[in-house]
Design goal:
alpha/beta, 6 helices, 4-stranded parallel β-sheet, single chain
Length: about 130
């Protein structure tokens, strides 16, 4: 094989690894984790999810986590948002990349977004 190949590894641990844990990880520990991952050479990290804190308390500090991550030189800061309001909050916080969820089944939509898939479709149409 000839030529240059670029590979981007996007770490999702600070978001995916924490969203289902019962015990809250202190914000300062999350910041240290993200900083250490960046120091290890990761250039893109999905640092949090902009979800209602009552549904996933682990992500209540999402805006503060993004603010910290944005201070790390060269880090591409990503976040997940399950709905329009979450996307607005993520953009206001200053993420560089936004991951949106799309459910193709009722059970997935109810489990991931706390509403039926039809409501998500109607909301996206309204927001567009």
């Amino acid at each position: 094989m000839t030529g240059n190949i670029d590979v981007l590894i996007s770490e999702v641990g600070p978001r995916d690894g924490l969203q289902n844990t019962k015990q809250f990880m202190p914000t300062e520990y999350k910041k240290k984790w993200i900083s250490a991952a960046s120091e290890a050479g990761l250039r893109e990290i999905e640092v949090c999810s902009f979800v209602p804190p009552k549904l996933i308390p682990q992500m209540a500090d999402a805006a503060e986590i993004v603010a910290h991550a944005r201070t790390i030189r060269g880090l591409h800061v990503a976040a997940l948002a399950p709905n329009f309001k979450g996307a607005q909050r993520a953009m206001e916080a200053g993420v560089h990349k936004l991951t949106l969820t799309i459910s193709v089944s009722e059970s997935h939509s109810l489990a991931q977004c706390a509403h039926d898939a039809g409501r998500g479709d109607r909301q996206r149409e309204k927001d567009l």
